[in-house]
Write a structure and sequence with these properties.
Layout lengths: L2 H19 L3 E9 L2 E9 L2 E10 L13 H17 L1 H4 L3 E10 L7 E5 L4
Parallel strand pairs: 3-4
Antiparallel strand pairs: 1-2, 2-3, 4-5
Length: 120
């Protein structure tokens, strides 16, 4: 497994822990369908939150959230809709929100974390 993949998984784990510590219930991770993958799906009262996680060792090549351009945001909305279609019970009665989390540092467990709610 590539070091980049390990870093990404560790960043997603850190993001999931951050969400749980802040009152979110993580209900799905790395959900895949024909259109792609959703990193994290979480809930909080009245809300279904689809989270895109970007992990980088540094900002030397730009902030990780800069990688979420308009094309990627549109794709994430389509993926969120596909997740809802596959899981209607979990989504029922909840408003959809897309968040982004950046994890920046060589050691994800202690790296800086930035959570942008309703970012996309």
């Amino acid at each position: 497994m590539a070091a980049k993949d390990d870093l990404g998984r560790a960043g997603e784990q850190r993001a999931a822990e951050h969400l749980a510590a802040n009152g979110y219930q993580v209900i799905d991770r790395n959900w895949r369908c024909a259109q792609g993958e959703v990193d994290i799906v979480a809930t909080m009262p009245g809300m279904l939150v689809v989270v895109e996680v970007k992990t980088r060792r540094s900002v030397a090549f730009g902030h990780p959230l800069e990688a979420i351009d308009a094309r990627k945001a549109t794709r994430l909305w389509r993926l969120a809709a596909a997740w809802i279609a596959a899981h209607p019970q979990e989504a029922r009665g909840r408003r959809l929100r897309l968040d982004a989390i950046a994890v920046i540092g060589s050691e994800p467990a202690t790296a800086d974390l930035e959570h942008l709610e309703d970012a996309l």
